[in-house]
Structures
1.
Amino acid sequence: MSTTFLEIDHVSRVFKNDKGLPFVAIKDVYFEMKEGEFVSIIGHSGCGKSTVLNILSGLDRASEGGIVLEGREVREPGPDRMLVFQNHSLLPWLTVRQNIGLAVNRVMRQLPKQERNRIIQENIDLVGLSHAADKYPREISGGMKQRVGIARALAIKPKILLLDEPFGALDALTRGRLQEKLMQICDEHKISAVMITHDVDEALLLSDRVVMMTNGPEAKIGQVLTVDLPHPRKRLETVNHPNYYRLRGEVVNFLDRQKQIKLDRLKMKSNAVISMGSIEKTNLTIGYIPLTDCAPFVVAQEKGLFAKYGLDVTLSKETSWNDLAEGIREGRLDAAQMVTGLPLAITLGMGNKIPVPVVTSLTLSRNGNAITLSKKLQETGVHDLASLKTYIDSCQDAYNPALGMVHHASMHNFMLRHWLASGGIQPDQDVDVIVIPPPQMVSNLMANNIIGYCVGEPWNVRAVDSNVGFVVATDLDIWRGHPEKVLGVRKEWAEQYPHTHLALVKALLEAAQFCEPLENRDEIVLMLSQPQYLNLSPVYIRPGFAGPYRVNTMEAKYYKDFCQFGVGNMPSRKEQLWILTQMARWGLVNFPENHAEVIYNLLATDVYHQAAKELNIEVTEEDREAIALADGSTFDANDPIAALSAMPYSQFTEPVHFDSVKGFASKKVATARH
Ligand SMILES: Nc1ncnc2c1ncn2[C@@H]1O[C@H](COP(=O)(O)OP(=O)(O)OP(=O)(O)O)[C@@H](O)[C@H]1O
């Protein structure tokens, strides 16, 4: 049975602007909530929060899509959805009791008078207004009026409470008290509620989930954050919880990014698409993470290869893979260096996001990662996978030991999990696998927040040199020649700017060629070490890149003929299918029954072929052999479902249809409408 209580099913709302032209305020907003959940909607002013709430309440109608409450489409206002506004809207000539009574007597007129009076009194008591029950609105404070508004809404027992900035007009002290009161009522009575707020702390205090909206026009849900803080909540305990500032950071970062996008859009208006000859757009912003393997981007910039192919590129140093992914989703970035699973993750809407189709036209690097464990572990006798298992089995701590990796869709995550599983250690059960931005790995290891991590260079060498960690395995011990970084762009962008896309692939492919010979690498180390890129001494960059490799053998590869089945820089169907199975294996996404179509749409091999042809690079087609991993296991891409079912600890149950607009087999309004 479905646990969906309320479904905002792909809702769009088009208004007319003051010139009479259509204005798409919100587009394709999709969200589901469970009964008893408290959800906040947060976003910058004018993004469309009230539009969503008005459509939910039935005061406004969606131009497309609809609202389904307990399996029925709702189109009109009704007592099952009570709206509480900022300006309490009480009738001045009625007392507190009469204001509440008016609603109760109207909606519950079938109940005996005595019962109705009991309900009225119960709700007056609930919001702590017994002493003011017979006062008129002019005789009570703003906070008290707002409590009357809440009591009036709760008294008629709506299925869901809709709150439009309910405390926005109150002073800080009253606001704080009322938040606590509402939090207590919602906790005790398991109220389902949707609340609009501009206040991050208010959202975190009250909500089970925070829905963050992007800027309009065409505003969407950009991110949904689960607030996994314990209930019942008390303000002090909540803000002192170890996870509070991480959650707060997520919301604040999202809002900051939206602010930046607004500024960028204003800038872009005066800096519209610049085109030259057949190149539709010459001015590009490309996202990357300051790791050694961003080398092709740095080389293309420093050696003038972007310019050679008619591009004027700004390289945007991103702080995390998550920020970079958002940059692509929101259109702030034209293109980006991506961990190999990221194009699929964005395309599938992994992490509860709206799917945004992305294509990859180039594999930029292979290998280059290692698993580092803390020196403290080594001192207790851990030196390989088997002794790590012994250590984990004997762990008496209240919390699972944690290992870091850089993004859920990264090869670091998949390879780390594969390696652990191959040694009988079950990720998520025996150890936690958590996301940490690469530059923060070493400090987290030193602070004992994690017992180790899987990351690229220079962060393994750095831990070894600082004597805080040792390398227990490199990726050569897991999958020699695995794809590591790829180029990703939005599919829509690729269709809009095909010549720009081709020029970009040519510039990067030529840069990758330059990165490959070891004799070029010392020169590249100096480029990378500059403040605008890695901002790190060459001493730390050289060992993981130019050799001699101090950390076992970490052969980072950049140019063709280096992977076991010879596709080189061409995006590979087999590799992406392996990644897709890992995403499903670890419960990150459903496995699409139409996986062949999903992968076909993901790979822009035609662009790669054209670029290779123009650069006189021979293209080797992918064979149909199974991928061989170092632990002796193989992956047969011809039957991914069988392969997935046989993987140890697989969370896969059954394939689900994926639709590039609606996501994974989302229920259609049509089936629930009456
Ligand atoms: N009836 C309408 N006619 C035309 N445009 C409208 C109408 N209602 C809303 N809009 C526009 O739709 C967009 C979203 O408005 P909405 O009030 O939903 O935003 P909001 O996020 O609630 O803003 P705030 O936080 O400032 O209250 C805005 O650009 C607004 O100007």
2.
Amino acid sequence: MTTTLYPSFSILLVDDEPDWLYSMSITLERAGLTNIITCADSREALKMMTEHAVGVVLLDLTMPHLSGEELLERIAEEHPEVTVIIVSGLNQLETAVHCMRSGAFDYYVKTAEEGRIVKGVKRAVREKELQLENRELRNRFLYDRLEHPEAFRDIVTGDKGMRSIFQYVEAVALSSQPILVTGESGVGKELIVAALHRLSGRKGELVAVNVAGLDDAMVSDTLFGHVKGAYTGAGEARKGMIEQAADGTLFLDEIGDLSLGSQVKLLRLLQEGEYYPIGSDRPRRIRARVVVATHQDLAARQAAGQFRNDLYYRLRAHHLHVPPLRKRKDDIPLLLDHFLGLAAREFGKKKPTLPKELAVLLSTYDFPGNVRELKAMVYDAVSLHQGGVLSMEAFVRAIGERPVQAAAEQPAEPSENPFFGVDRLPGFTEAIDLLVAEAVRRAEGNQSIAARLLGVSQPTLSKRLKQQRGE
Ligand SMILES: Nc1ncnc2c1ncn2[C@@H]1O[C@H](COP(=O)(O)OP(=O)(O)OP(=O)(O)O)[C@@H](O)[C@H]1O
């Protein structure tokens, strides 16, 4: 079985004592840090650093030929981007201060508790990962490029904001830290998660678990699995989803609905990197990268005490928010055409021609169900289609079932308040005239669509327009 090495860069241990190199490698590997190389001759260290992508060095001080202090200075000069941690047999304040001044990230005494050294190495790895991600992100934005556009082939969009999301996805895809994907229902979060997994280069599977509606016991059993006889009815041992996702991605959907009890368990899993299958007292290491998604406003849930602060901050380190379709209306014609092709193929029909007014009608609608809703409308329309121009009926019916511009339920931003910054309110008749003119403009002159936007019948609107013209 191939195992994904973590982190993506190597951790180099330099010490002339082979026993220490061996025991430290094992300790770090047990803590989940598997990308380790060792060097027992300090004169070889710089050469190894040019041959391997080294991100962190653990360096002994007392070594023959080339001392740790000398090597530290050479590393700081030739590889300033590499983080060096001193692990010395000497507990000397003066030496420690000197090393820190020469650029060391941290200083530990070998006799110190191993757990502290491991924590220090993990902190250095985390900082290095963030540095690399930031650099990557800066480059991507600077050159506005996508390294792997093919990873996003299923996501149809021409929107700039979505393109920035793709760039962010590429920048964090290799990170082992959790990733939070938010956005209203139906915006395409699952597609983003699939791209994240594809780009992670992880050889394991993408395993998705929808945690909404699972009680604490079900969450534990599903994620952690159980040993045989763990509880009445557990006749056979069962692997948890964490294990199924080994060397892959564990995708926890609807995380905003996770109960407070299960939130504690998830936090512990992310912090310790360990879990216990139910009925077992032997911990297992998680080897999957965790991605979570929710359509809920986690910050609001956190403020209401329904979501733990510590978990929220842990999850938020890498956060991407997929905008609703109403905020990227230029995507509507692209998606319309895409789904039309898919639906026609699925129903074995010729791709229909679109009525001219359809794009206008759809552009006036807010799509509370986002892309999923548009897709359903198109499939419905194509299933009824008899040939020639596509009928608007399925769309008009679907939109009619929902109040137009249902997004009014969303909290209004100042810029969405039509009276924001307006000192003088228009008179009643003037307001109606303004409203009518705006609806006709948005409907590109189509009176039946404009009437729908205003919530009046078409004859009523027509009468009003005639009155305005003095007819
Ligand atoms: N940009 C897009 N291009 C093509 N298809 C899309 C796009 N966005 C969404 N879809 C399609 O719309 C449907 C809903 O997308 P998806 O399941 O990814 O949404 P979601 O945000 O995960 O929703 P939920 O929060 O309800 O789980 C899917 O069939 C998906 O393939």
3.
Amino acid sequence: MTADTSRVESAAAAGSAAQPPARRASAARRLLRDPQAVATATLVLLIVALGLLAPVLASHGPNASSLDHIDAGFGTPDYPLGGDHSGRDIWARLLHSINTSVVSALIGAGIALAVGVTAGLVGGYYDRARSATEWTFSLIMTFPGLLLLIVLMPLTGGDFRVTMAIFGVLLSPGIYRIVRNQVVGVKNELFVDAARVSGLTDLRILARHVLSAVRGPVIVAAAFLCGSSIGVQAGLAFLGVGPASTPSFGSMAAEGFQNLYIAPLQILWPSLVLGTMTASLVLFGNALRDTLEGATPKPAKNALPKAAPAQAGDDAAGEDAPAALLTVRDLAIAYPTPSGELKEVVSGVDLRLETGETLGLVGESGSGKTQTAFAVLGVLPPEAVVTRGSIRLNGRELVGLGERELRGLRGKTIAYVPQEPMSNLDPSATVGSQLVEGLRAASGISRQEARERVLALLARVGIPDPERTFRSHPHEISGGMAQRVLIAGAVACRPVLLVADEPTTALDVTVQAEILDLLRDLQEEMGMAVLMVTHNFGVVADLCDRIAVMREGQVVETGTAMEIFHRARHPYTKLLLDSVLDEETVRTDPPPAAVPAAPVAGGTGKETR
Ligand SMILES: Nc1ncnc2c1ncn2[C@@H]1O[C@H](COP(=O)(O)OP(=O)(O)OP(=O)(O)O)[C@@H](O)[C@H]1O
């Protein structure tokens, strides 16, 4: 347990020592590239610097008055912005008001964050504490904030610092809710479970694992809290809450308002600086949010140049001869990480599939089988980037094809059978209407013709009462039946290539064999090629002519089913085969040693026949 604990801790420490600084550096870089962030941060810093330099920049104190300078005009010597109705230096009061605002922002936002984050962590992490925190913050939210601050004036003595501390508490429910929601989302993640199981204390888990997950939204909210605090402090001062001796944009604006007809500029200066400060903070908060929360970069779907139009019948394999039905060459697929870097999940995959042949794509979970199949279908998620490689079907390059061209191929030339039949059928429409719609979209035939074809197909895939199933909604049929329906839909236009992604995984064992039989029969009948994605060697043995074994985004070995099952060369393939349970296998302890990721020597990373 001690060793495990230290491993988790050191992993977490390594995570926070290595990963986050890179992310922070990158977030800071992105922030620096955002003109809105740079402009607003510069304005805020400039204003804060002016406030800090107030004793140097102003010739008078904020409350020093001179009878000679009552309502002095703009540009009066020593009174650059003039004098107010009490003969005080407007420039000096403006600079000192900045400091009042900054202190208000620090107190208001600081208290709101301290209270909200702490309670959010506790309420989100400990279920038993949640009802108490919920109740408390709901109660706080019922207080009429501004009114309460005015009513409490006799208690606060009008001191803006105490007032802002109370305002911070009133602001804290917003932060509490943000943090609580984040924590509730994070606390059941596997890495938190792992830390818990390893014996880390709750405090450590909260500080190391949970807090890091909530800091983004909290940082963003802090900018808005500062803006609100400044605005409220000025608002209260405008209403006359607090001593007149405290320089504040609010009191300056109130005095300027009284004097509007005599010296209209007096209201302009505090309003201008207050508006610039609060607007800059809010806009900076927006830029911060875009950088930290909407951080996923939007790469092009395809990093490659648009596919050159290729003639059907071109040599699909380029230098390979003869041309195969499907040739995947050096395919690489990557996803952007939060830091903006691309991470490859498929790295240089080569595959070849002949007409009428079944190729099994096997490998452990996460090895890149589905990504490869999705690339062939042209249905990778928008954030995926095909960084290199080629996919040729019947000699036509698919990588770089537009969505319209791909849609023209899908259903007609390439079809797909998914893993989860139920979730691939629309629960609100009948089975028949879904199949008819798909068939008509792919073939353009009339509704009546499509209906007849669908009924014939349903009978062909072994559905006992096609008419009834046609009229049924998906919840009225079994999983095996639903998979038959989807297979019927997939083969309706006699595609040349069927991509089946774990088509039997979600089904009952007895139904699995029937579905495999059906696929085999249909394949023979229609002469389709089948790309069978699976991690089930039983399925592979049952259906596949050839097998490609994937690991960590690469094909490590390919061969005929016979070669792979009887003369597997790559240690990873042997390990996969060894892990297939059968009644003769006696498990040993310790398990076989881990194997290296490299493809087996002899070029089996490349597809050969
Ligand atoms: N949208 C995505 N964003 C980032 N990474 C992704 C995304 N989709 C998949 N991946 C990653 O790509 C890798 C390969 O996933 P893929 O689904 O191809 O694996 P698989 O071999 O089919 O596994 P399984 O048998 O579990 O479906 C995984 O590491 C996965 O985390």
